[in-house]
Amino acid sequence: MDFSVIQYSKFMTLLDMLLHNLRTLHMTLEDSLRWVGEVMAEIGPSHLQKDEKWNVFDIKQANAIIDYLKISLFQHYKLYEFLFYSAREEIVLGTEQIIEVVKPSGGLFPNPLEEGISFDIYSTFIEPPPTLDTEIKRLDQEQGPMESQPEASPSDTDALAGFTIEDVKSVLAQVTDDILIGIQTEINEKLQIQEEAFNARIEKLKKA
After folding, report:
1. 36, 18 in Cβ contact below 8 A?
2. pLDDT on residue 2
3. Which pLDDT score is estimated for 16?
4. Using CA atoms in the order 124, 130, 135, 138, what is the torsion angle rounded to 10 degrees?
5. Distances in whole angstroms, Cα of residue 14 to Cα of each of 11, 56, 65, 69, 195
6. What is the number of alpha carbons within 13 Å of residue 132 lying toward its C-beta?
7. Global confidence as pTM
8. How far apart are CA 170 and CA 176, in angstroms?
9. Closest CA to 176 of 107, 123, 129
10. Contact indicator for 21, 7 with CB cutoff of 8 Å
């Protein structure tokens, strides 16, 4: 149906007023039908001699509007009443979850999780190697009880009197190299063992 701009405006106003009467004034179906009849009598065709500005729709257009209202709003009037009047349950779209985080450790890397990797793999591949100061302190702690001797008398000579600073640095460098070489060798052996174990697992998976 071809409507003019004014006719479209009147038609949309009619639909808005019908929904307003249903939602706000709680009009029943009978009251809405009666109200539509009164409105269409004002803006529809009339056999009386009225001002032409009130005759917005002709007979064919008025019948088309009434047919549309029958198959849309009036046919599903109960559904619209349920939509506007009935209280609906609120749907929860999200929930809050509280996650407890493990407290950070004092080291550079966090401690391994129980359900994660084993401590052997962590200590071999992830844990940073001990520094020189740590090794020296450990050696001092191990050798301290064995080398404890009674206090020397003032007459005893200093044991380091015959060594220079360069000699002490050379000895410390040699000890440090020996310690680091031993640690590196141990790490390489563990890496080789792990690599062989992984290769064996891969071969088993290939055969399976």
Report:
1. yes
2. 79
3. 92
4. -70
5. 5, 12, 10, 10, 81
6. 7
7. 0.39
8. 10
9. 129
10. no
Distances (CA, A) of 134 to 34, 37, 138, 168, 172: 97, 98, 6, 19, 14
Contact 62, 45 (CB under 8 A): yes
Task: Annotate 11-74 with DSSP letters as a single string.
Answer: HHHHHHHHHHHHHTS---HHHHHHHHHHHHHHHS--SS---GGG--S-HHHHHHHHHHHIIIII
Give the pLDDT of the chain (208 residues) as one tens digit per residue. Answer: 678 888 888 889 999 999 999 989 889 999 999 998 888 887 765 544 444 555 678 888 888 888 999 999 999 999 988 888 887 777 777 777 777 665 666 666 665 565 566 777 777 776 666 666 666 776 777 666 555 555 545 555 566 666 777 777 787 888 888 888 888 888 888 888 888 888 888 888 888 7
SS3 (DSSP) at 196: helix
How far is 168 from 174, CA to CA, in rounded Å?
A: 10
- Residues 87 and 24: beta-carbon distance below 8 Å: no
How far is it, in rounded angstroms, from Cα 45 to Cα 41?
7
CB 7 within 8 A of CB 60: no
